[in-house]
Design a protein that fits this description.
The structure holds two protein chains of two kinds.
Chain A: E1 5-10, E2 15-21, E3 23-28, E4 31-35, E5 42-46, E6 49-55, E7 58-72, E8 75-85, H1 91-107, H2 110-127
Parallel strand pairs in A: 1-8
Antiparallel strand pairs in A: 1-2, 3-4, 3-6, 5-7, 6-7, 7-8
Helix pairs in contact in A: 1-2
Chain B: H1 4-60, H2 68-71, E1 78-84, H3 94-111, E2 115-121, H4 123-133, E3 137-141, H5 151-166, E4 172-180, E5 186-194, H6 196-205, H7 214-218, E6 228-230, H8 233-307
Parallel strand pairs in B: 1-2, 1-4, 2-3
Antiparallel strand pairs in B: 4-5
Classes of the chains: A alpha+beta, B alpha/beta.
C-alpha cells in the first residue's frame, strides 16, 4: 500500500499539479481540513484561500478560489475555479480584487452577502 | 486574348493574394497549436467534474429534493439551443457545418411541435441563422471583445443560461458546437446540458470517443466506503451543477477554437495551392502571348523588308 497521497489540482484552464504528496491542507467552506493518504471518501466545497501541499518536508502553497475537493480511495482531486501558485500572485492584483470584493459586499444581500464576505475574508488572509 | 499588361497585373495580384493566404495559414497553424493545448489542458477538469456529478446523481436520483438542473423540469416543451460558432470567417466549411447541424436540430424539434429558442455565441453563426430564424434568437454573444478565451466568458454565458432556466424560460438546453477530432476533421455535435442527468448519461454512452480518460475516473471504486459530504449533497449540487454548465461551455468554446484554427489552416493551405496553380497558368499564357507578339512583329519587319 502506498504511503503517499495521489493529488491533482485542476482548474478549467489547466492542470496545475498531478503527483504524489504526503499531505494536503484544504480550506473547506465548513472549515479547513487536511487530507492524508488513505483518507475516507469525502467531498467538500472549497472557499477562497490557500491550499498547502506537503511533500518530503517541503511546503507549496496555491491560491484557490471556489471549487471542490473530492477524496476517493484513488486520491484527492481539487477542482478549483481559479488556482495559482501563491508565489505567482502579485500583491497589487490581490489588493485590487479585495477592493472589488469589498464593493460587492456592500451591494450583496442575504445569502449572497455571506458568500462574498467569506470570499473577502479568504482574500485578506492571503494578503498577509 | 488579354494584353500583356493585363496579364502582368493579374499575375501580380494573384501573387499578393497568395502571400496573404500563406500568412493566414501560418498564423492559423501557430494558433492551432495553442488552441489545441488549451483544449487538452481543460480536459482533466471537465472529466473530473463529470465524474463527480455521476457520483452525486447516483445518490440523488429518485429523491424528491433533486435539483431541477439535474433531473429537468419534467417537461420538454421549450428547447434552448446554444449555438457556438467562430467569430471570423475564412475557415472553410467550419461555421456552415455547425449551422447546418443546428438547422437540422431546429427542424426536427419543430416537427415534434416544440418551441425553440436560440442563443448564439460567435458572430458567424448569428449572421447565418438570423435570416432564417431571426425571431427565435433571444440572445447573441460576440467573442470579439475577448482576446483570449478564458473561463470568465464561459461563466458569463453559463450564468445567463442558469438565470433563464431558473426563470422557467426553457425546459431543455442543448449545446451545439464543433468537436475537434483532428486538423482535417471537425464534427458538429449536439450535447444536452440541462437536465444534467441525461448529459452525464450520454457522455458515458459515447463509446466512439475512443479510450478517453473519463472512463476510468467515472466510477471510482469506493471499496465499500460511503461518501461523506460537506456541506450536504444538495448544497454541493447547487454549486456544482451551474459550474458544470460553465465547464461544458468552456470546453466547447475551446474545442471550437481549435477546430476553427484547424479548419482555417486547411482552407488557407488549399487557397495557397490554388493561387500557385493560377499563377502557373497565367504565366504560361503570358509567355505565349509575348511569344506570339514577338513573332508577329518579326513577320511585319521581314515582310516590310521584302516588299522593298
Amino acid at each position: 500500500m502506498s504511503d503517499k497521497l495521489q493529488f491533482s489540482l485542476v482548474s478549467p484552464e489547466r492542470e496545475l499539479f498531478n503527483g504524489e504528496v504526503d499531505q494536503v491542507d484544504v480550506p473547506g467552506t465548513e472549515g479547513d481540513f487536511g487530507v492524508l493518504p488513505l483518507h475516507a471518501p469525502f467531498m467538500a466545497a472549497i472557499r477562497t484561500g490557500a491550499i498547502t501541499v506537503f511533500n518530503d518536508g517541503a511546503e507549496t502553497k496555491y491560491m484557490i478560489q471556489g471549487g471542490f475537493a473530492d477524496v476517493t480511495p484513488d486520491g484527492l482531486t481539487v477542482l478549483a475555479e481559479r488556482a495559482t501558485l501563491l508565489e505567482d500572485v502579485d500583491a497589487e492584483s490581490l489588493a485590487a480584487e479585495i477592493a472589488s470584493a469589498e464593493q460587492a459586499l456592500d451591494a450583496a444581500e442575504g445569502d449572497a452577502k455571506l458568500d462574498v464576505a467569506q470570499h473577502l475574508e479568504g482574500l485578506k488572509s492571503l494578503q498577509a | 486574348m488579354a494584353s500583356l499588361k493585363e496579364l502582368r497585373t493579374r499575375i501580380s495580384s494573384v501573387k499578393n493574394t497568395q502571400k496573404i493566404t500563406k500568412a493566414m495559414q501560418m498564423v492559423a497553424a501557430a494558433k492551432l497549436r495553442k488552441a489545441q493545448q488549451a483544449a487538452e489542458r481543460s480536459r482533466p477538469y471537465s472529466d473530473r467534474i463529470g465524474a463527480v456529478i455521476t457520483n452525486l446523481s447516483a445518490s440523488m436520483a429518485g429523491s424528491e429534493g433533486a435539483p431541477k438542473l439535474l433531473v429537468g423540469t419534467g417537461s420538454d416543451q421549450t428547447h434552448l439551443l446554444v449555438i457556438a460558432t467562430a467569430d471570423r470567417g475564412l475557415c472553410g466549411g467550419f461555421n456552415t457545418n455547425i449551422v447546418r447541424a443546428a438547422r437540422e436540430e431546429i427542424v426536427s424539434l419543430e416537427k415534434l411541435g416544440k418551441t425553440v429558442k436560440i442563443m448564439c455565441v460567435g458572430k458567424k453563426g448569428h449572421d447565418q441563422l438570423e435570416r432564417l430564424y431571426g425571431d427565435k434568437i433571444i440572445d447573441f454573444i460576440s467573442l470579439k471583445e475577448h482576446k483570449t478565451l478564458n473561463a470568465a466568458i464561459a461563466g458569463e454565458i453559463g450564468g445567463k443560461i442558469t438565470d433563464m432556466f431558473d426563470a422557467g424560460e426553457f425546459d431543455i438546453c442543448k449545446l451545439i458546437y464543433s468537436k475537434f477530432v483532428n486538423v482535417m476533421t471537425q464534427e458538429p455535435t449536439v450535447k444536452t446540458m440541462i437536465p444534467a442527468i441525461v448529459a452525464v448519461g450520454s457522455r458515458t454512452g459515447n463509446a466512439d470517443d475512443g479510450p478517453s480518460a473519463a472512463d476510468d475516473v467515472f466510477a471510482p471504486d469506493l471499496k465499500g466506503a460511503a461518501y461523506e459530504y460537506e456541506p450536504d449533497e444538495e448544497g454541493i449540487l447547487k454549486v456544482l451543477l451551474p459550474r458544470n454548465i460553465n465547464t461544458q461551455i468552456f470546453a466547447a468554446l475551446l474545442e471550437n477554437n481549435a477546430g476553427e484554427m484547424g479548419s482555417k489552416m486547411t482552407a488557407m493551405d488549399n487557397a495557397t495551392r490554388n493561387a500557385g496553380e493560377m499563377i502557373d497558368k497565367l504565366t504560361l499564357t503570358f509567355n505565349r502571348t509575348r511569344q506570339a507578339q514577338i513573332t508577329s512583329e518579326l513577320i511585319e519587319i521581314i515582310s516590310g523588308a521584302e516588299a522593298l
